[in-house]
Amino acid sequence: MKAIVIDQYGDKEMLQEREIAQPIIQDDQVLLEIHSTSINPIDWKLRAGYLKEMLPFEFPIILGWDAAGIIVEKGKNVSNFEVGDRVFARPATTRQGTYAEYVAVEENLLAHMPASMSFDEAAAIPLAGLTAWQCLVDFSGIKKDDKVLIHAGAGGVGNFAIQIAKSFGAYVVTTASGKNEEFVKSLGAARVIDYNKEDFSEILHDFDIVLDSMGGEIQTKSYKVLRPHGKLVSIAQPPTEEEAKKHQVDAGFVWLEPKGEQLQHLADMYESGKLKAVIGETFDFNEKGLKEAHALSETHHARGKIVIRIKK
């Protein structure tokens, strides 16, 4: 099968197209023929070597951890999915990723795609959508009328976080550039802070939840907008215990745990019109396409998700 691999850490030029053996599935797995995948910051952070201690994979590594496609083979213990099913998944974090024509996926990480959902849309949802869900629902316990600040609302995790928070009946504020104001409002943001013109920490107070996707100074300033015992949840860097204690805030770091059951819930939200997949750019499945996609993701200014179309 065709795959894009890396043989060493480095810049986007490390991405190489190659023919490799198709995965052999275990009894609890399916073989998924991938139609679309997408780009997430974990992809280029691992490629650059930033995550080599956390994820010490052997080379060659196939990056990518979003998949949408059709089941072409299933293990003997798989009971809820059949060959021919349209499914999507955030596969386990292994060195056999989704920049490939096929991937092996455990049954418990799969979700059925709604009939109206395209493969590109399905590929855009798993990693970013599940991250937003686990930050807001699992960690923060979001509820109706909560005041929620979501940083970088136009980005991959941010756009799903706005929609999820809105579906719970929360009051949602987000930071974004002025050009994205109407876009994030269309997703459910009641107020938009243009980070080029305003300092969110000077104008927001008594918030229940902050979702931090930036880290650094943004994380430090985020404590100021929270009420006592509010929740600060980060996907950028682990908050310090000292800072959280000083501000009387419950702070934590979320590293996504793939769950097919939660992904199926996001599929149901899509079907009911409460969630949409925002695709900013689509690239072809080849060396050139992947290198361009990585370059765009590394700017931190991509709107929505960057999708790679594998099967046309």
TrEMBL record:
Residues 10-308 form the Enoyl reductase (ER) domain. Keywords: Oxidoreductase. PROSITE patterns: QOR_ZETA_CRYSTAL (PS01162). It comes from the Bacteria. Gene3D superfamilies: Medium-chain alcohol dehydrogenases, catalytic domain (3.90.180.10), NAD(P)-binding Rossmann-like Domain (3.40.50.720). GO terms for molecular function: oxidoreductase activity; zinc ion binding. InterPro entries: ADH-like_N, ER, GroES-like_sf, NAD(P)-bd_dom_sf, Quin_OxRdtase/zeta-crystal_CS, YIM1/Zinc_Alcohol_DH_Fams. This is NADP-dependent oxidoreductase.
